[in-house]
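Morning run. Coffee first, then this:
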Amino acid sequence: MSSAAGGKEVLLSIRGLTVEFRVPRGILRAVDNLDLDVYSDEVLGLVGESGCGKSVLAHTILRIVDPNGRIASGKIIFGGRDILSMSKEELRRFRWKEIAIVFQGAFNSFNPVMRIFEHMVDTTLAHDENAKKDEILKRSKELMRMVRLDPEAVLERYPHELSGGMKQRAVAAMAMLLDPKLLILDEPFSALDVLTQKFFLKTLVDIRRETKKSMIFITHDLAQVAEIADRVAVMYGGVIVEAASVEDIFYRPRHPYTRALLKAVPSIVGSVDELKPLPGPLPDPVNPPPGCEFHPRCPHRVEICSRVRPNLERVDDVSLVACHRWRELN
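And here it is:
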């Protein structure tokens, strides 16, 4: 993978990342020798079925892997530094300041006995002991307005006094408090109703337009990706199988898995009979199939697919694909 796409600078570079978890049945490999670049001034959509490793990858970037997990190998380079080699103190200062994350559910992101503004103060002082409270208040109000919340009403409330959508937007505001270079949104709409999802997505699109902030937007909803992302990485079985511009992913997909995902999405104009759910289950991460992990479900598989794992090949300046047959299938 090159150091730039379309002249953009690489902001985050992941190479050979493997993350494993010890489970009763053995070792579960959630991320398997994964390579991925995130560029400056872009929104990268990360998509794939539930269980493919998206959230594990997001947590690993900030080294917040669950206690039963371990980062077995790889490098995560950000600003010329390997996040995996940082000390605990370096990590404490790095998180939220350089890279911040909005988790799936805001319900567990706040301390229930602290007001929203107290969270803002604690977060700021943890990184800048000399910060003044009136400056924090001014910044907090700006961010609340940015996420379409009334700062006078929200900042003095406790988390339980806010609706789910308000809490999720408040978490997004807090994530931007220290102006991080990269914002990770890990399925931020999963606990919201459809109307609130639509409103929050529009808010994020507006924030992106106003701030030019780089983001990793993780979801299984391709419609959301189409609205906010510049580029899309498709994840399957712990690896990236395709990465390309939004337009290429939707109109010129190269990997059979990407094509299958698109065919499984309902259309507002097409017939329900035209839907084609993906056949078979996801690969067992404890005992994955040999070769290409998608081959048991792939209609285009040939003998080599069951023996040799395909490399992630560069197609052009932006696009990559991991498939033995992508040339002949396009």
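Residues 254-330 form one domain. Good start to the day.
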